[in-house]
Amino acid sequence: MRASSSAALAETIERWNAVLETRASGLDAMASELSGVVDTLDENAALRRALTDPGRSGEDKAALAASVFGQAYSSDVVDLVSGMVRSRWSKDQDLSDAVERVGLETLLAHAEKEGKLDQVTHELFEFAQLLETERDLRVALMSKDASVERRTGLLHNVVDSALSPVSVAVLERRVSSPRYSSLIASIKEVVQHASERMQTLAAVVTAAIPLSDEQIERLERALTARYSTPVRASVVVDPSVVGGIRVAVDGELVDATIATRIERLRRSLAEN
After folding, report:
1. What mean pLDDT is reported for the chain?
2. 3-state SS, residue 201
3. Chain-centre distance of CA 255, in angstroms?
4. How far apart are CA 2 and CA 88, in angstroms?
5. What is the C-alpha separation between 42 and 175, in angstroms, rounded?
6. What number of other Cβ atoms are within 10 A of residue 105's Cβ?
7. Whole-angstrom distance, CA of residue 44 vs CA of residue 110
8. If DSSP codes are grouped into helix, strand and coil, which group holds residue 130?
9. Residue 252: strand pairing partners
10. How many other C-beta atoms are found inside a 10 Å radius of the C-beta of residue 107?
């Protein structure tokens, strides 16, 4: 997003979070409604253009939004969308993308209220790792040759008894919506947003063997001290690492593996 759209999204999320704090329940239903709004906007370019037309007044655009969505959705969601169209958006598609992001934040807020946001973050990370290794499952979940019902049915067969309802809702949206071309990348993006909501940094730790809870906690404490921000570590087991661990925190790679040192030595010898 360009600057004006990014600013509008940030302001929207801040205002919406204030609303969500006052709601004791129903956040999952509102998230579902917001997905419905996004689907309508994605399918109707003329409506998107009308709702983001800089030549129309904010009042006019808000009235249009209320007339389109007022009968189908709750007053909270209609008020939210009516407020969003008053803002300035660089592109009409940015409005759809922003509503999608607000829907995700609503789901994450729901998990947060239930004290399960950390659990959801871990579940989604683990599922992304599963998809990395299970190519057939990944392809089946994103196959355009299969109906939405078939793809979501497969997803529920795989995860319903294993993951929390919020995690399932996040995954179902990404499997069913044509907006997402890469399932793994979109899940990792959710993990990043969840970490931001918890005001933590996400660390991906790759080790040759599984780490104990004590080792993970010790590593998290060390990384927290290094970055002066709480760090939440998720572990990936990769036998090719050959001793030590590889840690990536917020885009920074901290590598202390034997395999990497051997490769550096090999390159050094080759250069000489």
Report:
1. 91
2. strand
3. 26
4. 11
5. 16
6. 23
7. 29
8. helix
9. 249
10. 26
* CA pseudo-torsion sign 25, 32, 175, 153: positive
* Per-residue model confidence as pLDDT tens digits over 57-89: 999 999 999 999 999 999 999 999 999 999 999
Amino acid at 149: E
pTM of the predicted model as reported, rounded to 2 decimal places = 0.84
Q: Which fold has domain 200-271?
A: Glutaredoxin (3.40.30)
Per-residue confidence (pLDDT) for residue 256, from 0 to 100:
61
CB neighbour class for 109 (10 Å; exposed up to 12, middle 13-18, buried from 19): buried
User: In a 3-state reduction of DSSP, which class is residue 206?
Assistant: strand
Three-state DSSP state, 14: helix
Phi-psi sector, 228: left (phi>0), alpha (psi -120 to 50), beta: left
Alpha helices in 148-244 (DSSP H): 148-159, 165-176, 183-197, 213-227
Quote the CA–CA distance of 125 and 192 in Å, as a whole number. 10
Sign of CA dihedral 155, 156, 159, 165: positive
Retrieve residue 178's tokens.
């044509």
What gap in Å lies between CA 120 and CA 223, rounded to an integer?
A: 22
Task: Give the amino acid at 219.
Answer: L
Q: What are the phi and psi torsion angles at 203 (to 5°)?
A: -110, 130
- Taking the C-alpha atoms of residue 17 and residue 176, their distance in angstroms, rounded to an integer, is 26
Tokens of 116: 């399960």
Strands (E), 18-118: none
* DSSP secondary structure code for residue 59 in this structure: H
- DSSP symbol at 256: -
Residue 245 CB neighbour total at 10 angstroms: 19
Q: How far apart are CA 149 and CA 181, in angstroms?
A: 17
